[in-house]
Write a structure and sequence with these properties.
This protein is α/β, with parallel strands linked by helices and 375 residues long. The chain has one domain: Metal-dependent hydrolases (TIM Barrel, Alpha-Beta Barrel). Helices cover 39% and strands 11% of the residues. It has helices spanning 7-18, 22-25, 75-86, 114-126, 144-154, 173-176, 179-192, 209-225, 240-249, 271-278, 293-305, 334-345, 350-365; strands at 46-47, 52-53, 62-67, 129-134, 158-162, 195-202, 229-232, 257-259, 282-285, 312-314. Strands 3-4-5-6-7-8-9-10 form an 8-stranded parallel beta sheet. A two-stranded antiparallel ribbon has the order 1-2. A hairpin with a 4-residue loop joins strand 1 and strand 2 (52-53). The longest helix has 17 residues, at 209-225. The termini are far apart. Mean pLDDT is 88; it is low at 1-34. Bound molecules: zinc ion. The site of zinc ion (ZN) has 6 residues, from loops. Zinc ion is lined by residues 66, 68, 135, 200, 232, 317.
Length: 375
């Protein structure tokens, strides 16, 4: 039996047990009673690409905090070649296979095909998804207008990110700009574009001085805007603690941060994960639905048993056509249709899974804007 960390839950469970309803309560999703609904600061909103939403508007389904719906066609080929150059042994990206060779006659790249992608968004909604966060920005070839079109066509709320990705993808200016110049550019993006989060902000492998500079600048931009932050750690989860140190050092509260890709960190005792959770940050298990699941399920169970269900964030970081439904994969809903059932089978309750997939991302994404929305 898994420990239930939240005092509210224990109270409710205890109360139900007293009433003799314990067995029934075990299968009730948290939403059924609303007793455990998270509290949000006054004035907090979730900034989707079309409009600001009250966090309650996304209570009816899951929010995926790290996916990709808009990347340049050459993004993954470049990513794979840098990964091979960095570490020939581990130059694979979780379950993501390289993009398939162009078909004949040539098809449009799937992330530039609005009809195909709107179908994928509708399919995700059917799988129980309420909102998807796109982790791209200009240095990854992300197209804000394309994301808007997808949200309009499919009706699915999308949160767009902003920032700079990792050393191999930085525009040339990053090397010469000061930390303050980078922060000013990020603040400009956050205040003039319909973006709702800084992410994904990464370190490629061993963190570089330019990456440290960008992390500090993102921290400053957060202090100026309140936009939350999610990160990319290089394989296997390197620099996770330093990323948190850099952001906290710039004045960011850990509760506003997800340190990402920690399912990749091969640490069966989850010591790094626990240390990050203990400081109050979220940790991302955000590349599941593949062969890595068998290793990651016990890690997640151990973290829940240690009382850290409120710090877990799930997503799949979809990046190739083979992962879409059209391409024969499980699509954007994979986190809910492939990964979550494995946790349920391992004994995690529906109530805890509801908290992780519905409430944690809303607590993370909700912020009180410092300036009125412009775009
Ligand atoms: Zn990503």
């Amino acid at each position: 039996m898994l420990a239930e960390p939240r005092s509210l839950r224990l109270t409710r469970r205890e109360a139900l047990n007293i009433l003799g309803l314990g067995a029934a309560a075990a299968v009730l999703p948290g939403a059924a009673s609303g007793a455990n609904s998270p509290q949000f600061p006054k004035g907090a909103i979730i900034r989707t690409i079309l409009k600001d939403l009250p966090p309650e508007a996304l209570a009816g389904g899951s929010t995926l905090f790290h996916e990709h719906m808009s990347l340049a066609e050459d993004f993954m080929p470049r990513w794979m070649s840098y990964a091979r150059a960095t570490n020939p042994q581990s130059g694979r990206r979780g379950a993501a296979p390289p993009p398939p060779a162009p078909a004949t006659p040539p098809q449009p790249f799937f992330m530039q095909d609005p009809e195909l992608m709107a179908d994928e968004m509708r399919a995700a909604a059917k799988d129980g998804v309420s909102c998807i966060v796109d982790g791209g920005h200009p240095d990854m070839g992300r197209d804000l207008e394309f994301l808007k079109e997808l949200s309009v066509k499919s009706g699915l709320p999308i949160v767009a990110g902003c920032g700079f990705y990792t050393q191999p993808f930085y525009p040339a200016e990053i090397a010469t700009w000061s930390e303050d110049q980078i922060a000013q550019e990020l603040i400009r993006q956050a205040n003039s574009q319909p973006v709702g989060v800084f992410g994904e902000i990464g370190s490629w492998d061993e963190i570089t001085d330019n990456e440290r500079k960008v992390f500090r600048a993102v921290g400053k931009a957060h202090v100026a805007t309140n936009l939350p932050i999610f990160t990319h750690t290089g394989i296997p989860g390197k620099s996770a603690m330093e990323q948190l140190d850099l952001l906290e050092g710039a004045g960011v509260k850990p509760q506003r941060i997800v340190i990402g890709h920690l399912g990749n960190l091969n640490d069966p005792k989850v010591e790094v994960h626990k240390a990050i959770c203990k400081r109050g940050a979220f940790i991302g298990f955000d590349r599941q639905g593949g062969p890595g699941d068998a290793r990651q399920v016990p890690m997640v169970v151990a973290l829940i048993e240690a009382g850290y269900a409120d710090n877990l964030m799930f997503s799949s970081d979809l990046s190739s056509e083979a992962q879409t439904k059209k391409g024969g994969g499980a699509g954007y809903g994979k986190t809910l249709t492939v990964w979550v059932p494995k946790l349920r089978q391992a004994g995690v309750s529906d109530e805890i899974l509801h908290g992780i997939t519905v409430d944690n991302p809303r607590r993370f994404l909700a912020f009180v804007p410092k300036k009125k929305r412009k775009a």
